[in-house]
Amino acid sequence: MKHHSLLFLLLIFLTHSPSFSATQSWTTIPRMSPIPEWEASLHHHPLAVDAEEIKSFFFKQTLDHFNYNPESYTTFPQRYLINFKYWGGANSSAPIFAYLGAEAPIDNFPNSIGFLTDNAASCNALLIYIEHRYYGKSVPFGSREEALKNASTIGYFNSAQALADYAAVLKHIKNTLHAQNSPVIVIGGSYGGSLFYAVLASWFRLKYPHLAIGALASSAPILYFDNITPQNGYYSVVTRDYREASETCYKTILQSWSEIHRVASQPNGLVTLSKRFNTCHLLKQPDELINFLRLMYGYGAQYNEPPKYPVNVICGGIDGASLGSDILSKIYAGVVALKGNTTCTVNGPTNESETTVGWRWQTCSEMVIPIGIGNDTMFEPNPFNLKRYVEGCKTTFGVSPRPHWITTYYAAHNIKLVLGRFGSNIIFSNGLKDPYSIGGVLENISDSIVAVHTVNGSHCLDLLRANQSDPEWLVKQRKEEMKIIKRWIAQYYADLHALKDNPKFHTK
């Protein structure tokens, strides 16, 4: 039942997602959250965290860390959660695991990001979850309406400010708990582990090494900016996933786009398509259906987690042809296999969440990931068009994106050369079934900046709570990551002990 609900909610999310149109390619960047927006309660297993273990706090956060105009000193309440259950205490310099929040409220992450709680006891670790500014209850200017009112107020919503937020919160917590000698490991998933948060995880480690001794960045596509990775990469991996699942499924999907256009071009063709796919409203153009299907296939691959594997579910429906042997009947059977029985599928009522709005701003300012579709995928070609992208952002927010800023501020070009002798203690983890893995770090950069990946893994799967049904390769991946983290902590304690024995370098 859990996975049936997951698949049902997946379709709900897809029907509410931004469209992929010829005039608004700026909406095409798939979200990168560790858990899908539709999956807010799907990882609440019997072993989930007891709500009484989680304590909520607010930190008086500075609006602008990098400017000294009077308005910069304005503050807002930033929320963070702490689980003290496993902590060995400051006197023993027990470690701190800090999860750096992604593009969503922090409420569900103590349950969803099970990697922390699963490993806290063996490390006697304090668990911290810090909410990203402009999400959840960490909203400047008194209300979400004011914070998102225009480009002047939402302009403080960027990665550099968020990193500085996390630094301030961590420093405050360590001071409050008298835990100056407790080593901090930061964990981030996807956006929380990507170049923003390979900013929030790996780049936090590089920019604030005095606050974090190591970082785990899961599914972090830090090489998907500024055309370092081919624009076609994301949908090429999606295509590969479906083709590996079933050659006939792949071929049916490949042929379906021309069939949709053929039917749509006939008299009452949109009515025919609307009935065939049980749309919630009459289709106004075939792109509505095409957008829906592309997003369904893409997110199915991105979150293709065991034991159900949405890609296999979709292809099982398509290949089973339970609703008819023609191409469109097969495609609809794939939709039904994923969604189950419901009143309607495509173009349902829209319900834009704070995550949808926030992610749209982030991708219209600095998070410009040039994802396009070329001629060698199972989709219709739709190359990334920066001019069109900029026009869409200007229309929506009145600002132009800065497509080169991420690589300027955080680096990414020639990453092995740049980081090979700079930085340490970073794990880049990926599942190669995840389309975003094409932009991830898949080879070791140095002895201590390492890549851990699995052939069958999906987006941020290693960060989710362990289950008895987990395949051995996933169990092995998590064990390898913790082995590395424990080695970092042991080395830190050895260095701390050596420092205390040398009064010349010892400071309180």
Automatic annotation (TrEMBL):
Signal peptide: 1-22
Transmembrane stretches, start-end: none
Pfam family, one: Peptidase_S28
GO molecular function terms attached to this record: dipeptidyl-peptidase activity; serine-type exopeptidase activity
GO biological process, one term: proteolysis
InterPro entries reported for this sequence: AB_hydrolase_fold, Peptidase_S28, Ser_carbopepase_S28_SKS
Record's keyword terms, sorted: Glycoprotein, Hydrolase, Protease, Signal
Domain of life: Eukaryota
Family membership noted in the UniProt record: Belongs to the peptidase S28 family.
Protein name: Lysosomal Pro-X carboxypeptidase
Organism from which the protein derives: Vigna angularis var. angularis
Gene that produces this protein: Vigan.10G058100
